[in-house]
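Much of what follows relies on a compact textual record of a protein's fold. Think of the row as the fold of the chain written in a discrete alphabet. An example makes this concrete, so a full record is given next.


***
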Amino acid sequence: MRYWPNPAHKRETTEAGPPGWRPSKEPCPDDLTVEEREELLRNSVPGGSGARSRRYTLRRANTGLQFYEAKWHTDVDDEPEFHGHPTTRVPNRVLRVFRDEGRITQAEYRRHVRELG
């Protein structure tokens, strides 16, 4: 599993080329490094079954919890490649995994299951 940026969610130039951000897309934070993006993908939780299902992860920032969704877009050398972006929708099943793994507290789980689920 590997990460490759989607310019539609970027306001800055990345390894994928110049930004192609569109107002209808949620922009990615400018402060995420390539290493952080890859780590977010590695720590992501599948939303369904299969190697190409959407994946979800979170990041703690100064502004609070940030949730991300990763979507498969191609295979490179038989390895699924994903791009990710901020999201306002996370399946309740995934939020339970975050809670059970200790990545969010019980109080955060209760709040976000209402807001994101």
Q: What stands out?
A: The mean pLDDT is 85. The chain is about 25% helix and 25% strand. The chain has one domain: 2-88.
